[in-house]
Structures are given as structure tokens and as C-alpha cells.
Specification:
Layout lengths: L1 E6 L2 E6 L5 E2 L4 E2 L4 E2 H17 L5 E3 L6 E7 L4 H8 L1 H6 L2 E7 L8 H11 L3 H9 L13 H11 L6 E3 L5 E3 L4 H4 L1
Parallel strand pairs: 7-8
Antiparallel strand pairs: 1-2, 2-3, 4-5, 6-8, 7-9, 9-10
Helix pairs in contact: 1-6, 4-5
């Protein structure tokens, strides 16, 4: 007798008669399964897949054991720390997909650096340079950074790095490679 309603990025449950609204997680008691978390994960993955890898910076094996998607800010020290561990992840068969998420917003210096990464001849190298604090050739071109920001807001990104696991769960903040593995 409950119906799922999505309003903006939030999903709630409502009774058939409209008298009751439930926020929070719905747990199946017998199995202790968080049904809300599973549903959120499904929606998050669908939104990310809709963006498509063509609009991401992808590092790692083509036939990966697992894939993580990282909302990264090129001026974030914890994003830099995570990026330093990407070789360990890719060696273990994990594909890392970056979405550029300048926390300071559109028009900020971080935003301009994110655009420059996207417009670079070698995006992976430009991302590595930026995450290491290096200088970029400031270029502009058609880019998906605005869409990355919109997607991040839609799925609830509040800080960087935000790591989306391949089951749709979100790990907010820096997580060491050993723990991801």
C-alpha cells in the first residue's frame, strides 16, 4: 500500500490515500535488507550510465573486474590522494571513471581548470597534472563539466571525492585503495 515518489533528487514513500508520507529507509525485517538503499543504488547507477563513459575520464582495464565512478575536484587534496592510488586500483582490475566536479561552482578557477582538463589533448595526463597541483594549458572547448555538476547534485554529492561503487553505493570522501579493494 505504499508508493514511491521522486521529488527532485529525493525519493519518499506515500500511502495510497495520500495521508502518510514516509521519509528515510524502508527495511525488510525478515532479511534485514535495506530496500531503500538498493533502490537508490539502482537509480544512481542508471543516472551515471546515462551520462556515458564518452563524457568521463576513464583509467584502467577495458575488461575490468569492477568499476568505480569518482566525482573529483581537481583542487581537492583528498582527490589528489585518491588519484595517487589509482595505479594500485587499476593493477587489481578496477576501472576508475572520473566526473569533474568543481565544488566552487561554475566560473570558479577550479571550474576553469576542470574545463582545461577536458579540453586537453591527453585528458588523463592533464587530470594527473592538475591533481598533483601542476599548471595546465588553459583551454576551452565543448565540455561536460556542467553536466557532471548537475549529475552530482542529482545523486546527492556533497563533497569530493565521492566514490560510487559498481553496486550503486556511495562512499563519501577519501577511501584508501586497500579499503576499496
Amino acid at each position: 500500500g505504499l508508493y514511491e515518489v521522486t521529488m527532485g533528487g529525493e525519493t519518499v514513500l506515500i500511502s495510497a490515500d495520500g495521508k502518510y508520507l514516509l521519509t528515510g529507509d524502508l527495511i525488510e525485517v525478515a532479511t534485514r535488507t535495506n530496500l531503500s538503499e538498493k533502490r537508490r543504488g539502482t537509480k544512481i547507477l542508471a543516472a551515471i550510465e546515462k551520462a556515458g563513459e564518452k563524457d568521463m575520464i576513464v583509467i584502467g582495464p577495458a575488461k575490468a573486474k569492477h568499476t568505480i565512478t569518482v566525482f573529483t575536484d581537481v583542487d581537492c587534496p583528498y582527490c589528489s590522494k585518491l588519484h595517487n592510488e589509482v595505479p594500485e586500483l587499476t593493477k587489481a582490475g578496477i576501472k576508475v571513471r572520473y566526473l569533474l566536479y568543481p565544488r566552487a561552482g561554475v566560473g570558479s578557477e577550479t571550474y576553469k581548470r576542470s574545463v582545461a582538463i577536458w579540453c586537453a589533448k591527453d585528458r588523463k595526463q592533464a587530470a594527473s597534472t592538475a591533481l598533483a597541483g601542476g599548471k595546465l594549458e588553459m583551454k576551452t572547448c565543448k565540455h561536460p563539466v556542467d553536466e557532471h555538476l548537475k549529475l552530482g547534485t542529482e545523486i546527492g554529492v556533497t563533497g569530493t571525492p565521492t566514490i560510487v561503487l559498481d553496486d550503486g553505493r556511495i562512499a563519501p570522501g577519501y577511501v584508501p585503495a586497500a579499503q576499496i579493494l
